[in-house]
Amino acid sequence: xxxxxxxxxxxxxxxxxxxxxxxxxxxxxxxxxxxxxxxxxxxxxxxxxxxxxxxxxxxxxxxxxxxxxxxxxxxxxxxxxxxxxxxxxxxxxxxxxxxxxxxxxxxxxxxxxxxxxxxxxxxxxxxxxxxxxxxxxxxxxxxxxxxxxxxxxxxxxxxxxxxxxxxxxxxxxxxxxxxxxxxxxxxxxxxxxxxxxxxxxxxxxxxxxxxxxxxxxxxxxxxxxxxxxxxxxxxxxxxxxxxxxxxxxxxxxxxxxxxxxxxxxxxxxxxxxxxxxxxxxxx
Length: 283
What we know:
Blueprint: H1 11-19, H2 25-32, H3 35-50, E1 62-65, E2 68-71, H4 72-84, H5 91-98, E3 116-119, E4 136-139, H6 141-147, E5 173-178, E6 184-189, H7 197-209, H8 212-226, H9 228-238, H10 240-257, H11 262-271, H12 274-277
Antiparallel strand pairs: 1-2, 3-4, 5-6
């Protein structure tokens, strides 16, 4: 899980751009009539995001304004047709949010490339936030699909939010080498002792629901094979200790980028595994 800067784009500005292309006069009037609600919801979302209380935002079937209600379906279509669609008026804003991901990689898994925007709070369940930039997170399609649209109703069921939940200073991702031919690895969460119970539950749920253990394990086998030749040279020259030192150096280098890098966790686990350093890497 990576933390990325939230987009400095107002919901009202985005909303106004999106509704410029609406031709139905009745719909446009009703949309113009909820501009204040869009702005208020943006402010409320930001405050609750900072306080880790997004679960407290109420779901709604529509957005009621001075010219009548705008339905959830109409807000969903506004997003899909006038923001997400290529060459639509709001697509420039969509693209600005997309490029906010570090190195173009999904902040949810920290591995796969960004290919879509995820609604932190689903657009059908929270229509007032359908085109709100801080409710839109660049991510990969796999994480977007696995996260789903089910709303969090309690503090511990909130998915980690890439704009508000900064866990980058704490180490929580670890790995263990699996002996075999070829060798592999398993990954798991080990929360630091100073975390509160809710934070630990949220991280564990994020890791479980997005199936990150399987994702990282599927990549670790290939990664271990990629460094096999290099480790063999170290082993033949100076033995198991040289292999362990090489792996620790790789792990430390990864940690300089992010302390919870799956590659860093993999290299650390390999360095601490006597079987692997003693020649198991050749299996």
